[in-house]
Amino acid sequence: MEKPDNRRGSNAVAIDPAPIRLVKRAILVFFGPFYFLFIAFVPLLCVHRRGFRGWYWRLVKRACSRLLWLLGIRAEMSDQDRQTLGTDTGSIIVINHRSHLDGFALMDVVPDNKWFTFAAKKELCDAPLLRTGFKGAGLVEIDRKSGKLAMETLSRAVRDMPDRQSVVLFPEGTRTATQSLGAFKAGAVMVARETGRTIRPIVIHDSDALLPRGKVFPKSGTIRIDVLPPFHCDPAATVDQDVERLRAAMMAVFDGS
């Protein structure tokens, strides 16, 4: 039986006074939809321009940072971890999944020169308004109806990526409701073995304290993100052994927060 962690959620302390939070959220409610539409429609006009992915990547990163600011949420990462990610190459990023804030927080803190993309279910890419932007930004489209096809698609996409780009995978597969990490799926390890890439584990803390499952409006507070040393798959071990070793390394950081 897991022990309750009284420290978890300690960063769910508002970083703005109540009047400022009210003003920011009013701005988000009234102007947020127009800003989202702008971000969504830019690819329709510019997707064929030279260097589109580079500057659209930075545009989306800025949008994520502005969203967190309007929500009164701060994402924290140490300078050393930022430097580590800024020089990271040849990796697959693996991050635990606590809430819908996780992707926005990661986009906010990662340096501009570290380029990554997400793997997403095919249904998201079928939405007419989002399809061009997702494809233009290099989102990896996964058909989850066939596990074998999904792995082949993901491995092929990773092999075709430049060294400085990484795909972000959530090994738990969904948001975890437990106090610790959920069980890991083998996909990240299998893709790393297939492509020869290392795994860069990242641990996110307190995002679920700000936006618990079932809630729509997040609390104001701080999300902390830790970057772990690169994880190398062991060719002498089984896939399951590598998965358990990866999970243990991330659990040691998460449970020790």
TrEMBL record:
The keyword Chaperone does not apply. CDD domains: LPLAT_AGPAT-like. The keyword Cytoplasm does not apply. Residues 91-207 form the Phospholipid/glycerol acyltransferase domain. Keywords: Acyltransferase, Membrane, Transferase, Transmembrane, Transmembrane helix. One of its GO terms (biological process) is phosphatidic acid biosynthetic process. It comes from the Bacteria. GO terms for molecular function: 1-acylglycerol-3-phosphate O-acyltransferase activity. The chain crosses the membrane at residues 26-47. Pathway: Lipid metabolism. This is 1-acyl-sn-glycerol-3-phosphate acyltransferase. It comes from Lutimaribacter saemankumensis.
